[in-house]
Amino acid sequence: MKKILLLATLCLVATSCGNQLAAVRKDAVKPMVIAQQLPHDTDDPAIWINPVDATKSVIIGTDKDSDGGLYAFDLNGKIIKKSIPLKRPNNVDIAYGLILNGKKVDVAVTTERETNSIRIFSLPDLEPIDNGGIAVFEGETLRAPMGIGLYTRATDQAIFAVVGRKEGPSGSYLWQYKLQDNGQGTVMGEVVRKFGNYSGTKEIEAIAVDNELGTILYSDEQFGIRKYWADPAKNDNSELALFGKGDFKGDNEGIAIYKKSATEGYILVSNQQANTFMVYPREGAKGDSNSYPLLVEIPTSTIECDGADATAVNLGGALKNGMFVAMSNGLTFHFYSWDTMQQWIDKAKK
User: Fold this and answer.
1) Separation between Cα atoms, residue 149 and residue 207, nearest integer Å
2) Rounded distance between C-alpha atoms, residue 173 and residue 112, angstroms
3) CATH number assigned to the domain with residue range 34-349, chosen from the 4 options 1.10.3720.10, 3.40.50.2000, 2.120.10.30, 2.40.160.120
4) Which of 25, 143, 221, 268 is the most exposed place for a label (fewest CB within 10 A)?
């Protein structure tokens, strides 16, 4: 009986995988690398640029489980380090030069859903520097942190974490925390802002911050992508833009920003159930920086992508114009040469 049940389960899994693979278009962009599989459930990647040698940059990815963690991959997709065990880490983002004990430390920050906290790790060694975590959404009934984006303010290099949750009220769905030394060489977080409209349609998970433009983008799933100012000192919680409505098959999910210059580039948003990415101009439409026309839909090898990241930094070889990294079902992350993505954009312009 056990053998029959096992065979039945394997058949169901094979059928499910087959159906998913069938949804990937034949002309889909192929990855340069598919990273080593993680044990449980990949969710979100972030790219750390090695300041000494960019060819030794690292991809940080989450393994979303009660026995999960952060994993570091080299550019060949090989696992080179795992963090301490974490209780369902969801999304992750990276910032450079957080001051601790008078020294600059690059950090990866992830949400830890089952402990209602965010966790901070030094890079590239993935060592915890948060004294066990920073509690978020304290005093709220709805907590369960999921999404995170890090903002570095140009004027003073202060670093802020923008945190989203599984559920929350419109107007204060996201909370923003200033990250700083607690005086003892570990990181503390201070709530400086509560903001963010919410449609109530599904949830808000993917959050991306554009440091140079000083803006926050987040996916209000099955509704659209919302835009806000990133600097809490502006005291402006008004919504700057809402775009992508009607562009997606189901969920609008992971957001990546590719920066061609200080102000120009592309916003890529996962069209999750279509296994494609929708591309918008980072600078907005000509004459209107808060209007975002769809430029192109790019089919990729990823299955139901939750999270993505991009960089234009020269990482060497086929990655001379940077790379695009996206999560895929199957416990993996797919690494693409940016050039293969740019080809689709260029073709759409003709």
Assistant:
1) 5
2) 17
3) 2.120.10.30
4) 25
